[in-house]
Structures are given as C-alpha cells and as structure tokens.
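Supplementary Methods. Inverse-folding protocol.

Structures were first reduced to a discrete structure-token string of length 194. This string, shown here, constituted the complete conditioning input.
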C-alpha cells in the first residue's frame, strides 16, 4: 500500500494541490484537491469588522505562534464532519516538527480558545482550518494571523475556497491561472513564519 509522506504533501502545495481525507477514520484514503477558482485573502486588503475588533480587544485575547500546534489541529478536527483524519494530524504534526506547518493561537488568560494552522512555503501561507471554543474567537485567530503575515512579509494567504463568511475578511476568488502566477512568485521569496 502507498504511504503518503510529508515530502509528497509539500510537493502538492508547490503545485496548487492540498490534501483532505474523506472521513476522520485512521487508514482512510487521503485525496488531493485543487480549485478552478481559488479562495485567497489578499494580505494588503484584509479587513476585520469594527465590532469584531472591539470584541477582540475587550476580551483581552493574546496571540502565540507554534506553542501548541497539535492542540490546534485537534481543535480543528473536533467537529461533526471533518476531513482532518488521524493520518492528516500525524502528517501535519510531522511537518510542524520539520518547520513547515505552523499554528497561530489565541489565548484568554492561559487557556487556548481558538487557533488556525497551515503550511508556510516561501512567501505563501496555506491556511488549512480554524477552530474556536469561545464565540467569535476564530476572528481573533484570523486577525492575529494577518498581523503575523504582514510582519513576516508574506505575499500570498491561500484559504483554498471562497465562502461568504470569509468574504467579510476580504477573501476573494481568483482563477486558477492567476493563482498559479501568484504561487510561483510567492514560492521564490525567502520568508520565515517563526
């Protein structure tokens, strides 16, 4: 039986593909997908609703990066229907240890209340999933991620698919040929997520 490796996953991202499992059961096949119209959040036009910014500030959320990656990915998998299988968790945790997968975490006091994770390559960040344990805390994760990408001079924030929910943060759809050009440009850059 073919065994998926971290190298295969990285090569897929380099060519515009991303992995998803059909279910969260161990041993289930992991398939690769792409999108003819890609969802991206342009780093320079990200926006956060004023009401959400006020709530984030009033909650006193704090940001951390890569302090509890496995807790974040497991938080993202903790839902009724998920494509994040145990095999995906194992592979992405290995990618984290190799320095490719990264998490942005949101804390209320010392408790993890939200976070997101993804893959960083060159000047591109491929966001995979987000979770929250407090209402609207995922918005803090997106805001903190945006701030981090700006600080590190990333140029491509790939979220795979456009949704109405993500549109409030500036998410747009672009054709695959436009995405491929942005991806090639981003991969040539030397950026560090840490």
């Amino acid at each position: 039986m073919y065994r998926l490796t971290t190298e295969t996953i990285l090569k897929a991202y380099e060519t515009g593909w991303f992995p998803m499992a059909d279910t969260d059961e161990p041993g289930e096949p992991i398939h690769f997908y792409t999108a003819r119209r890609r969802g991206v959040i342009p780093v320079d036009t990200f926006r956060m609703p004023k009401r959400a910014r006020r709530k984030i500030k009033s909650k006193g959320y704090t940001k951390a990066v890569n302090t509890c990656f496995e807790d974040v990915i497991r938080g993202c998998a903790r839902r009724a229907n998920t494509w994040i299988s145990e095999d995906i968790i194992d592979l992405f945790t290995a990618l984290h240890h190799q320095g490719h997968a990264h998490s942005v975490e949101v804390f209320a006091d010392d408790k993890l209340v939200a976070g997101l994770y993804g893959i960083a390559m060159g000047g591109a960040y491929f966001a995979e999933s987000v979770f929250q344990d407090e209402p609207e805390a995922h918005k803090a994760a997106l805001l903190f991620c945006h701030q981090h990408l700006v600080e590190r001079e990333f140029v491509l924030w790939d979220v795979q698919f456009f949704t109405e929910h993500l549109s409030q943060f500036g998410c747009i759809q672009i054709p695959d040929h436009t995405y491929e050009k942005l991806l090639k440009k981003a991969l040539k850059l030397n950026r560090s997520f840490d």
